[in-house]
Amino acid sequence: MEYGCASCGVTFNLLNKGYLYVKGSREIPSIFSQAMPYLKGYAISFSSEAELSELVETLLSSIGDASLEGNIMPTLNQYYPVYPLGEIAVRIQNYEIVDMIQSTEFTSFFQPIISLKDDRLFAYESLLRDPKGRISPGDLFEVAHNAGMHSLLDQKARETAIRTRSAKIQDGIKSFINFLPSTIYNPEFCLKHTFHNVKKYNVNPDDLVFEVVETEKIIDIDHLKEIFRVYKREGIQVALDDFGSGHSTLDVLIRLVPDYVKVDRSKIMYCDQNAESQEYLRELVRISKELGITVLAEGIERQEELAFCREIGMNLAQGYFLGRPQSEPEIFSSMV
User: Fold this and answer.
1) DSSP E strand stretches across 57-106
2) Would you say residue 134 lies in a domain?
3) Strand 18-23 relative to strand 36-38, pairing
4) DSSP H or E run through 22
5) What CATH code is carried by the domain that includes residue 183?
6) DSSP code for 48
7) DSSP symbols for 213-277
8) Are 179 and 212 in contact (CB under 8 A)?
9) Cα 276–281–284 angle (5° rounding)?
10) What residues does 174 pair with on adjacent strands?
């Protein structure tokens, strides 16, 4: 493995013959007659993919512990990393998608972000896509999460965004790139792959903005602050995404002080008519200006929403009204 992270670098292969290794649990010999002691657990032989799937299902139903660890092995003379049995079950049940995650060279779609000061193109958000259109991004990330492969997919998404940006977006136009904080266990170590690709594809770090996917609740503020510190040290800016969606508060903004805050669509929708949203947005803009944070309105779908966001001093805007995600960067002309 290039950087030694098991959850990012180890390939999962579905075997039609071999052994299911399960760490611990003394109940296993009473469930499977072919179980034999191996390392600190048991190895159970199988001779088909269907038999392997049945073994895992029987273990989960009999022992009732999806966190029980193990792996599948072709022979008994090697060590393999262990994973929760529940994740192995998901990998077996969704192996076509698992193989897709491991082997596909993904691509990025681009959605424009404009400046509300002069209506000019400011950036594109890079959005991961399967080039063959076999699966939606949501389904792809859901399987990756349930299979314990979200670190690998998130890493590939970051590389894909950097690679496609280098080929399709001119210098000086920023790229907003999503990342999952839960996949970055040690920023100094886990982000080496990303920084390597910035250099590999000759991308100016100043053109990159990495944004926290806020659908993951921010639990450890200090850990996220350390991630931000490492990104910023490399000359890369950071953003909080989906802000105001219910998982984020103004206190989080004050403690993290990102370069950008992207306001969730739930606060933007009909903001020209909703007094509660207007009060929230005005306060957010006020605090952000005091902290030197650039405010971006997400999900603009109506002229009236755009006009209100401009009126209260938001800096940037993004949404279907301004441009949908496209496989090629849209040639953007300033709005009248």
Assistant:
1) 69-73, 83-84
2) yes
3) unpaired
4) strand 18-23
5) 3.20.20.450
6) S
7) -TTS----HHHHHHHHHHHHHTT-EEEEEEETSSS--HHHHHHH--SEEEEPHHHHTTTTT-HHH
8) yes
9) 130
10) 123
Same-domain check for residues 232 and 266: yes
The domain boundary, picked from 64, 93, 122, lies at 93
Same domain, 145 and 193: yes
Whether residue 67 is found in the same domain as residue 171: no
- Together in a domain, 139 and 168: yes
Q: What is the residue whose two structure tokens read 């929403």? A: 305
In a domain, 324, yes or no: no
Q: Return d(Cα 94, Cα 280) in angstroms, integer.
A: 42
Residue 330 lies in a domain: no
Closest CA to 265 of 233, 243, 240, 293: 243
Q: Which of 172, 209, 216 lies closest to 194, judged by CA?
A: 209
Enclosing domain of residue 68:
6-93
Q: Are 85 and 95 in contact (CB under 8 A)?
A: no
> Are 43 and 35 spatial neighbours (Cβ–Cβ below 8 Å)?
yes
Residues 154 and 291 occupy one common structural domain:
yes
34 and 141 in a single domain? The answer is no
**What's the total number of domains in the chain?**
2
195 and 300 share a domain? yes
**Residue matched to tokens 């262990």:** 82
Residues 135 and 50: their CA atoms lie apart, in Å, by: 24
Using CA atoms, how far apart are residues 11 and 21, in angstroms rounded to an integer?
17
Q: What is the pLDDT along the chain (336 residues), one digit of tens a residue?
A: 333 455 565 688 899 999 999 998 888 999 999 999 999 999 999 999 999 999 999 999 999 888 899 999 999 988 788 999 999 999 999 999 999 999 999 999 999 999 999 999 999 999 999 999 999 999 999 999 999 999 999 999 999 999 999 999 999 999 999 998 888 889 999 899 999 999 999 999 999 999 998 645 677 889 999 999 999 999 999 999 999 886 668 888 999 999 999 999 999 999 999 999 999 999 999 999 999 999 999 999 999 999 999 999 999 999 999 999 999 997 655 443
> Are 214 and 108 members of one domain?
yes
Q: Which residues have CB under 8 Å from 263's CB, separation 6+?
A: 243, 244, 281, 284, 295, 296, 297, 298, 314
